[in-house]
């Protein structure tokens, strides 16, 4: 039985390695099976949907993002904590295509949901403290913030990526209170 388990683990690793080499928008389970050298049923047994595959590809990234959010939340200055959090979240989403899908989807595993809930809680706390501190305008919500970060990610992907920091600066400037 352990031979089957190690074989299943090898098949899963092959599928994930093959999927990592492709853009998320081009993931097709049948094509992935062929490219990974495994049966179609094997792919579907491990990943019943493309969304499940994308989640598996990005669960480690979500864990790392939560760790970065925890670190940012520990910064004593609320404005600096907020800026660090937003920059880190946006950069990380750009670096990990598919992470946004986990953040936005209702259909995620319990592990992904727990991480996502923690991330959103950290975002809310960091934002509220920055608003109280006067670093962020008071009419901004976590929903606004989430959409703005996703917008920056999308804008960066439309270009060559060299203007990522400029786009983040513009977004963060817009979040600052007006005089």
Describe this structure in words.
This protein has 179 residues and is mostly helical. It folds into two domains: 1-48, Arc Repressor Mutant, subunit A (Orthogonal Bundle), CATH 1.10.10; 49-175, Tetracycline Repressor, domain 2, CATH 1.10.357. It has helices at 2-20, 29-36, 40-46, 50-73, 78-95, 99-104, 110-133, 142-158, 164-175. α8 runs antiparallel to α9 (164-175). It starts with a helix and ends with a helix.
Chart the SSEs and their pairings.
Elements (H helix, E strand, L loop, with lengths): L1 H19 L8 H8 L3 H7 L3 H24 L4 H18 L3 H6 L5 H24 L8 H17 L5 H12 L4
Helix pairs in contact: 1-2, 2-3, 4-5, 4-7, 5-7, 5-8, 5-9, 8-9
Summed up:
By secondary structure, this protein is mostly helical. The protein has helices at 2-20, 29-36, 40-46, 50-73, 78-95, 99-104, 110-133, 142-158, 164-175.
Rg estimate, integer Å: 19 Å
Overall outline: elongated
Architecture (CATH level 2) name of the largest domain: Orthogonal Bundle
Low-confidence stretches: none
Number of domains: 2
The CATH superfamily name of the largest domain is Tetracycline Repressor, domain 2
Q: Helical element count?
A: 9
- CATH class descriptor name of the largest domain: Mainly Alpha
Percentage of residues in DSSP E strands: under 5%
Order of helices and strands: HHHHHHHHH
Q: Report the end-to-end length measured between terminal Cα atoms.
A: 68 Å
Mean pLDDT: 91
Number of E-type strands: 0
